[in-house]
Amino acid sequence: MVNVMVQSKSSRAALVKQFVTGVNKHFPNGSQQLQVGGASFTVTALTALLQSFVDNREAVEASQAAARAKVQTENAQAPAQLAAFRAFESVVRSTFGNSADVLADFGLAPIKVRAPRTAEEKAVSAAKGAATRKARGTMGKNQKKSVKGSITAKLVVTPVTTSPASTPVDAPVLIASAPVATPPRTA
Predict the structure, then answer these.
(1) What whole-number distance in Å separates Cα of residue 132 and Cα of residue 99?
(2) What average pLDDT does the segment 141-149 reach?
């Protein structure tokens, strides 16, 4: 037995289609009354109801396939179309300049002109840049060339000589001496 509620929509539609085939085969009298879910249906009305479910699912699947095809077509054509659009935008801007009225007819806004910076702003910006480069240790190409590493380390090698006739050295002996008396202090 197949559970109608856990299947996918497509497999459920296929099962309903199979029901329509079974109804037509085993209930040939279309005017016969059937009790289904507490309601009374004729075989023809029940068949029409089930067939409308199948038709709706097939229409949805066809629409989804058509939509997928349209999206694929759009994705394939969009790069060339956008390139042509950008080129045409450049033509419009070069033809009409920054004329706001004409550019507005095309849905474009005039290009904003940067306000010139004052000498004080430039000086502050240069000082900030120099401070940042110094803090980060940033160097240019030519400054990096002048940096050379120098090491002042010496390698000292002491040869180890082992001779078979080496004499053992006696361990130092600690000699205790008698305590020496110190004269008393006079104030």
Answers:
(1) 41
(2) 79
